[in-house]
Amino acid sequence: MGKNKWFGTDGVRGVANEFPMTIDFASRLGMAAGNLVCSKTKKVAIAKDTRISSNMLEAALIAGFTSQGVDVVKLGVLPTPALTTLVASLGVDMAVMITASHNPYHDNGIKLITADGSKFSDEVTSQLEQMVEANSFAFDKDKIGRVFHDDSCAEKYKQIALSAAAPNALKGMKIVLDCANGCFSNILPEVFEKLGANIIALACNPNGCNINLDCGSQHTENMCSQVVKNQADLGVAVDGDGDRIIICDESGKRLDGDQIIAYLGQWFHQKNKLKADTVVATIVSNPALDRFLEAQGIKCVRSAVGERYVIEEMKKTGSNIGGEESGHMVVADYSKTGDAMMAALEVAMGIKESKAKMSQIFPLFSPMPRCRVDTKFTSKEYMLNAFELPEFSEVVKQAEKEIDGKGKILIRKSGTEPKIQVWVWSDDVALATEKKKKISKVFENTKGFETYKNV
Hints:
alpha/beta; Alpha-D-Glucose-1,6-Bisphosphate, Chain A, domain 3; six-stranded mixed β-sheet; 18 strands; globular
């Protein structure tokens, strides 16, 4: 695995006009990717979300790619799942998605996507980082790329969604859709209306600065209240680039992401569409999810945290349903990555077919109680040192032995802060609390210890 300085599991992200989200970094990244990746067709596709800085970063990336003799196809505003789904048909060496997903408008990010719709490996992004840092690119006056426009992808993506359902599949349903003033603003309402649903559309007027602003998957209060006010059957909120979804029932009660994973797994299993009889979730999903799925004859396989790792595990197992508790839902029959529209469509069709209210269906299972504590250190170095302590390893092993068969323990190093997270699940809350305290107590006298925070 490469040691990346700037790339995380979902690309590079930061505040626009601050490193690394600068025109200098973006143009260098375009030059690096143009040299390292664009060797067959010498062509790249670029899509973006609706935030004001996306045009700036797009221009910088285009300058970088074209300076290395790579042609650029501008796709305009497009959801991430649309890009990952369609990139294989575009005849390009790779694609770039400019987005900061669910973050506020002043942030932005750059996601790199392979020619088959996957995310770049750590090894490749590590090489790209080295090239960006070295900044030693050659320029040839006879090798300058051209820029083309392709506005057809949004329509193609809509047709994929419409072909997944029967005509009027949602007729008689009333659905609130919160599009986060993002990429789905001109797509999601149209698709659901064409399938016969009565739509109440929220946050569908992007102005460059209102993406995810008090709306979308991170701010669902208005969606939930509008569902109740309009006596809707359900509410759907997406994030700025459309790869994350939050759903609420007719009473405005939000569903946990694990409930959506469970529902999609069960729904596909009932329709004999669940491949390998397997669903993939991450290590932080509730253990009760496994219990529920296994009772349905469905295997639940766990991956590391991050949509990318869910997808990798889905490929290994042959599964076509996977997701994260945070709201990324992958329906691989249609999309290469998390796809809020396809997940919402499948849930809505299942509810319609059941002829029951959502509150009569959910929750599908009662979550196992969870205790969590984050131990914060003054630096990443101190956090890493504490994580390697023999006494820490010993107390974790002992706790796992004592809770075996009664619950689950998960220990994680934060990827963004100097924190060690201790998660303990058990039907016996007192037992979980005891194990959580015993494990975290080891850090009290370690160098760099700062504070505990129960989450």
